[in-house]
Each structure stands twice: as structure tokens, then as C-alpha cells.
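Below is the data:
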Amino acid sequence: MNHSHRHQAGSSCLGTMEVKSKFGAEFRRLSLERSKPGKFEEFYRLLQHVHKIPSVDVLVGYEDIHGDLLPINNDDNYHKAVSTANPLLRIFIQKREEADYMIWGRHDKHILQA
């Protein structure tokens, strides 16, 4: 999985996609190569690294084109999320122990707003 923590001008022309992740009140941006996104476990570890939460067990979700929050917990879900990112993949991270399972699959945009 190739990734960069810096925004590159014209990145969509180069086959990269921008990822905006939210954990608590903190947002992070990074870039991934759309054609080589890697595996979910690599992405999960990358999110833990950029948010500086290496030992925290978290749930990862993404906002789909309808504004619903859908889980990313395996390679299939991760690749689906990557394929729907246009131009940005919005990621929402929750501590597993604090997770509100009722929001998954619902249109609750207020939790994802920047």
C-alpha cells in the first residue's frame, strides 16, 4: 500500500485518492494510491499510526454516496469504500468500547461533519 501524508496538487490525475479521517475531535488527511490500496489490516494500522492510537481497538467506517455510515472491517468492505471515494474518502473512527452501533448504516451526517 503506497501512502503519503501530504496533499499533492493534481493527485486525482495521478491515480491517488484523498482520505479524511476523524477520530474524536481530530481530523487527519492522507493520500492513497487508488489502484493499489492494499489490505484492510494495513489501512487499519495506518489509521492507528496517523491518529497516534497504536494500541487502541477501534471501529472504522466510511460515509457512502448516500451519506450513510458503513463499516469497514474486511478487505471487501475496504475495497468497496475505496471504489466509492469520489474525490474524497471520509473515514470515521470510534473506540470499540465506546461505539454506538445504532449509527452504522444510518444517515447521521452530524457525526461526520468537519
